[in-house]
Amino acid sequence: MDGDPKPFSLRTVLACLWRRGHRAFADSRITPLIVLLLILGLLLPMVATGYFIFRSELRALHEQFDEELHRTGQVLARSSSSLLWNLQRDIAEAMLQSHLSDERICEIRIQDKLSGRVFVELHNAHCEGARHEVLTPIFNGSTEIGTVRLLMGDGWLQTQIAGRVRELALLFGLLMLVLLSIVVPALVFKVIQPLRRLKQQTGKLSGGNLALAFEWRQGDEIGQVGRAMDEARRKLKELLEEQTRQAARQAIIDQQREENLRLSAAVEQQTRSLREAIARAEASSQAKSTFLSTVSHELRAPLHDILGYAELLNRKASPEARDQLAVIQQSGQQLLRLINDILDFSRGEAKPIVLEPVPLSLSRLADHLAKVYRARAAQGNNRLITRIDTGALDWVLADERRLMQILRNLLENACKFTQNGRIELHVQALPRRPAEDPALCRVRLCVTDTGIGIPRAQRRIIFEPFNRLDRHTRIGGLGLGLAIAQQLARAMGGRITLLSAQGADSGSRFSLTLRLPISVADNAQVDAPRPILGYRGRRRTLLIADDFPTSRGYLADCCRAWGFTVLLAEDGAEALEQLRAAEPPVDAALVDQYMPRLDAWGFLRGVRASAATARLPVVLISAAQMQRPEALPEAMAFDAYAMKPLSEARLAQLLQATLGLEWDYAQPPPSDKGPRAHSAKAPVPRPAAVSDAQVEAFQRMLALGQLSAIQQWARGMAEQSPEQAPLWQDIAQRCSSVDVPGLQRLAKAWQET
Question: Which segments constitute the Response regulatory domain (predicted)?
């Protein structure tokens, strides 16, 4: 039947092994080689083992054959001893014939030793193989009587050897089959199939399929290779993914780079346009500055003459004429303030405002303003009240002209918009906070009125230029006062705030809080006018250069009245000629900034270029802001600078600081009543940034007269401490004006604190 199992046979086993091996090796090149090497590896030891076993068996058979040969010879010798001695031939033949029944024995011959004849000789025709001979002596007792010659064939031996060879071949063949039946499946399972799987996985890997992981559970070398390949696959996958991400990032970067290049081109175009616009703006600003300087010069120069000559005429005028001159001076001062407001506002828009801090008394500043504006407030039937709460912190460093301008604008507006009411000026030194610098104090300045108030809608625009509370009222003005006041307040580090309500007698309150350095008092500075008769010492010669004859004449009249010899020039070139020809030499020169042929800067360059006049004091008196040429060296500068219009007191102060004069007055100086009068006892704390070593260095430089070094140090400290810049600027200004006593008082105050 078909379902009956087939009988087990060697042929069936070999066929099964062949089929399995053929399937395993069909698509492999290295596998047959491995199997061949394996078979050779198994066969060689088996062949070697079989060879040695066969050699051993062969040796044993040969030894057995030799032993049989000698033993048979000895048996024949013993058996034939008596027969040979008794010459019993027939019995000997019968005995030998019985031995020939052994097919191995080919020939037996007994020979008599005494006669040398053959006693018996028999042959076996059925003997096979090679013949082997043995001679055995025959003894009778101890006497040798003959020999037995025995020939045996090795056919039996060859048969035994062939049988042993067949047995060994069969044994080793069976053993080989058993080993192959065990080793080949193990080889297929352990080596061939893993290699085939490794090949399949490698094929997938080479095809780019990196997602499929290799699962290797074997712990042998092939398993290690598989796991290593899986690790390589994983890392290769990560590398390719990273390369893909980098390629994506690079694409984004390239796109961004193109966008950046486009934006850079656009920015470059915008930059060029901006530079052109900046250049046009700078040119426009320069033109505006030039225009402002020209306007300032053209407006201030006549005012300088008007106010100056009014002041000169006031000396010898009658009481009635003095009242008329007072009207001229008051109107001139009002016109000057209006011009200053317009020019300051325009200049503040064009470039930052430069402050000139000086020591001043807050209480005396308030008293001075109250004295000036009390009559102005009375015109509207108003009462002006002054409240001063400064205590010991009365002396500060601030730009007096700018601070005065802010308060004047606020008081002027209060007087304009208040009728039959009250105006209050409150100056207050606020308490110092624990974390604040002891060299600084907080000052609050308030102007409060009971006027018409300011509507809520106009409070935001009240500080904008050219905005007035009511354009249709009879109250005049340009709408610049509050704008300029706010501009100056911000330049000083503060801001004017407004508190107001609309309605009758609701009033307004303008407040300004500033952080100002505490100042050292200086008794030498006073504002009260003191008639000067002359000066002590030798007669001095002054050179005055101005293209306006009236300005030149006013300065000359003032100086001649004080006892100076005056030389006049219309421009810088004429002034240089007069300077070189003057005898005795000129002691100081007062020059206007803008003059025909040669301006003040050209005159200064000519003065400094000559060794004879290099140290001549030169004072710039100009109706416009000082504009230094870019090509002029930094070391070349004027000894002093003043703006027109110039009062007698200011002119006297300039000459005193420049020439070191000591004035002779018509009467003793009055007590300190002006806003700049100082008390020698007002202390100033040392700034926190100044160490003891710096104070000692300051005193040492002051003792050696090194004012330029002190000035340099003060400018450096102003850059390091912007909040205390007014203090250091005041020190630098004192060095410029050679105010050694003031510097000594400051050094002493710092040493004490």
Answer: 541-659
